[in-house]
Amino acid sequence: MSNLLASPTTLWLTGATSGIGKAVAEALLEEGHHIIATGRRKEAIEELASKGKGKVTVAPADTTSTSDLERVRGQLEENAPVQLAILNAGTCEYLEISDYRASVVEKNIMTNVVGTAHSVEAVLPSLRAARKKGLEARLVIVSSSAWWFPFGRAEGYGASKAALTYFAQSLRADLAREGIDVTVVSPGFVKTPLTDKNDFPMPFLISAEDAAQRIIKGLKKGKAEIQFPKRFTWMLRVLGNLPQGIIDRMAASMARDQNQQQENSR
Ligand SMILES: NC(=O)c1ccc[n+]([C@@H]2O[C@H](COP(=O)([O-])OP(=O)(O)OC[C@H]3O[C@@H](n4cnc5c(N)ncnc54)[C@H](OP(=O)(O)O)[C@@H]3O)[C@@H](O)[C@H]2O)c1
């Protein structure tokens, strides 16, 4: 169990302007927590703040910009103690294999991995300061379960989330001796503007509000790994543990169907 979120807690949330992050923000505001809210769209954060009864600090930033994050770092320090950081900002760009562009891979890696790594640099001093006061501190990184199976077109997104999960779990090892906990969140499909553009079936799709509740419940339990929905993540785990030859044949067949559908829709 964790005492975090059991009483009013100050936290930093990135990607607070849409989808899962917005739903997490709304649920946590309802519980009376104070959110330092980040995203690139300042007006969307201001809209959240207008409903937040003075409990939202507007902290717009592009998490791939070190100068933006330097400003947010100041806001985090002004609002001490910050005991919780939920690094959720992310993107999902798919590759078109017939028009292969390395820039798609780069964009996923820049936002999902490099942006998150810079965000950690911005918040770590605040989490350390909280620990120095004897308070609990937790870093939460929103990854994905998508990389557990080699889905076609997801070269960039899957690679970024595989790297992000490794990054988070390695940080967990290093930060353990300081008593800063690290949680990795690995959702399946969640209905958000990010997945609304998908043109393929999304099994066991859940709402952003449902995802937010599962994340908050997991954090209150002090979980190191939060994975949902279970039916989807178990299915992926089983598929991902099959012999490589079988995985390759299944993945190639799924990718072929998808590419065919894409061509037919043109
Ligand atoms: N939806 C799913 O099925 C699913 C599944 C697994 C994992 N995830 C992960 O969950 C997280 C949230 O996804 P979502 O589905 O809620 O997507 P979303 O609705 O598109 O929200 C993405 C959020 O990230 C912010 N963001 C993106 N790039 C940013 C940048 N460079 N700097 C600052 N903020 C940035 C966006 O804010 P601005 O536009 O205001 O910058 C927005 O608030 C992502 O990390 C995603 O990979 C989602």
Key features of this structure:
266 residues, Rossmann fold, two-stranded parallel sheet, 7-stranded parallel sheet, binds NADP nicotinamide-adenine-dinucleotide phosphate, 51% helix
Please tell me about this protein's structure.
The protein is an alpha/beta fold and 266 residues long. Helix content is 51%, strand content 15%. The strands form two sheets. The chain has a seven-stranded parallel β-sheet with strand order 3-2-1-4-5-6-9, with helices on both faces. Strands 7-8 form a two-stranded parallel sheet. The longest helix is centred in the middle third of the chain and has 31 residues. The termini are far apart. The model has no long low-confidence stretch (mean pLDDT 96). The structure holds NADP nicotinamide-adenine-dinucleotide phosphate. NADP nicotinamide-adenine-dinucleotide phosphate binds next to helix 1, helix 4 and helix 6.
Beta strand %: 5-15%
- The helix/strand order is EHEHEHEHEHEEHEHEHH
Low-confidence stretches: none
CATH superfamily caption: NAD(P)-binding Rossmann-like Domain
Report the bound ligands by name, code or SMILES: NADP nicotinamide-adenine-dinucleotide phosphate
Radius of gyration: 19 Å
Task: Give the mean pLDDT.
Answer: 96
Count of individual domains? 1
* Largest sheet, spatial ordering of strands: 3-2-1-4-5-6-9
How many strands, which pairing sense, and closed or not: the largest β-sheet? 7 strands, parallel
From the N-terminal CA to the C-terminal CA, the straight-line distance is: 52 Å
